[in-house]
Each structure stands twice: as structure tokens, then as C-alpha cells.
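Sequence and fold:
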Amino acid sequence: MKRFWLGVLAIIIVCGAGFFAYAWKPAIDPVEPPQRSSFDPALIEKGAVLASVGNCTSCHTRPGEKSYAGGLAVPTPFGTIYSTNITPDPQTGIGRWSQAAFNRAMREGVDREGRHLYPAFPFDHFTRVSDEDNRALYAYLMTRQPVNNPPPPNELPFPLDMRLVLAGWKLLFFDRGAYQNDASQSTQWNRGAYLVDGLGHCGACHTPRNRFGAEEKGSHMAGGEAEGWTAFALEGTSPAPIPWTHDSLFAYLRQGWHADHGVANGPMGEVTGNLGRLPDADIDAMATYVMSLMGEPSAERTAAARAIRGRAPAPPPHPPCPNPRDRIAIGHFDLAHMLGPRPSEK
């Protein structure tokens, strides 16, 4: 019996050592904050557009504070996480991060010092971003105004406050790797998939999550909840009373409203505003990809939509101004025609 327990102990020690070897990530040497002149202005502008796609400012900016300085409280089912400062401040931001350190954060969810990042930072989507686009994002962020602003410590219970636990989460749920084109699909479709599933991280809200906070496999865009908002399905089970079309989705993303689907209130108000920096071709590609997930509506839904149109009053010539309290940024890219009921007052 003693020999048996010694064997069990040996297995535990070996497994623990193996996990630690997998989980441990070395620090990347700090660099001197790069000068703005070291970046091509065209690369900076491209990064600005890409940061808008990712809606980066929503999570990394507290209302009324400096852009990208972090400190925004992000509630999760496991506790509150505070967003990081991603200005080029050398003490409290990413000013001493090299391009390699930035790439590792995006691709692997590990910061410059080797600490695993919580998936509230959606690295499980950002891992798909290309090296070229990461260079542009880095150029943009490293040329923002530096802000000295350390974020508050996260409010998480033990053992979730130990970042080593996140290595186990990644082992179970994280698929690392840049986006690979689907050869069976068009260039336009692939561009849309890259934007929606990568920087846009739509699935962060619109895919249901399991008890560990990971997106459910096989339920891509089947609907979910995030920070008190319902994010409806963006695939065949979409509950939109009038089915989406490519043209209506394009108009909604481009203009922030459509007569059949209403005004982009709540988080979508900021999202559609940020998408204003994208060219029409990219909006068209995103609409193409999402519509491929939704598929053609059934005959019953089409008939019901005709009946709704027959009863509905004529739409106003211009969308009503959204209630300012609805323009709340939650840092996720939601494409739904509506995000569900207003969060309950607490």
C-alpha cells in the first residue's frame, strides 16, 4: 500500500511539473518607448481603423477619462476584472513593450512580463489577427498620448486570482493561431470572417458560454449574454421578426439603423459609430459572412414578415435619437438587430 501511494505521489509531482513547464512564460525584455517618427503614418492610420473594428476604446477607457488608459470595471460571473492601460506610458502602460511582446499578448494571451491574461481580453479571437495588422495596431497604440494610470487590482476569488490557473483554461479551451482562409469560400466571405471572428470578436457576446466562461464549441453565434445584455443569435436561429438580408445588415452596420430593425442602441450605438471608419467593402464583407451563418429564412418566417410589414406604420424618414443612457459600451462587437431587454435596475 505504501508503494502504491508513493507511486501516486510521484505521478502528481510529474504532472504538476509538466503543467508548470507548460504554464510558465518568460518575460520579454523591455524596450525604450518608440518615437512616433519611427512609424509610417500610413501604418498608424491603418491601426486606427483596426482599433475601431476591435472597439478597443470601449473596454480600455473609463467614461470621462483619457482614452486607452484602462481601469474600466468589467463584471464577469467570476468577479470584476479591470481593463489594462494600453497607452505608451512606460510605468503603467505598454510603453516598454516591444512588437514581439504585443504580438504575444494578441496571439497567446500573455503579457510582456509573462503573466497570463484573463479572457475578458478576448485573445481567443485576437489570436486570428495577422502579423501585418498587429504591426499596424502596435504603431497606433504606441503613438497615443501616454497616461500614467495604474488600474485597480482585479476582484476575483481564490484560486481565480492566481494567473497560473489560466494556463489550464487555455489548455482546455484556447485554439491558438492566425486566421486561415477557407479555400471553398470567396475572398469577400473570408474577409468578413476575418473581421467578424477576429478583431470584431462578435462571438464574445453572441456565442453561449459554458460554466468555465469559454465559448461553447459547435454553437458559434447561437446567442449569448454579456454583462447584463442579451445578445441574440446571428445564425439560423435568429429571432428577428423580419429576417435580415444582406442589404439590411449592410445598412444597419453602415448607418446605425434600418427601417425593419430599428436604431443601434446600447453597445451597438458605439460599435456602428466605430465601424464608420471602415470602407464599404469591409462592411459588405462582414454582412456577407454573417448572412452565410443565418442562411435563407423559412417560408413561414417570410410569410410572417410580410404580415408584420402589412401592419406596421411607415418608418420615419430619419431614425430617432437614441436615449443617451442606452449608449453604453461593453467592449464587444454585437451585430444583433437588438440586444434584448434593458439591463434590470439594481
Summary: Confidence is low (pLDDT under 50) at residues 320-346. The beta strands are 73-76, 79-82, 224-226, 229-231, 257-258, 262-263. The longest helix spans residues 2-23. Residues 30-173 form one domain.
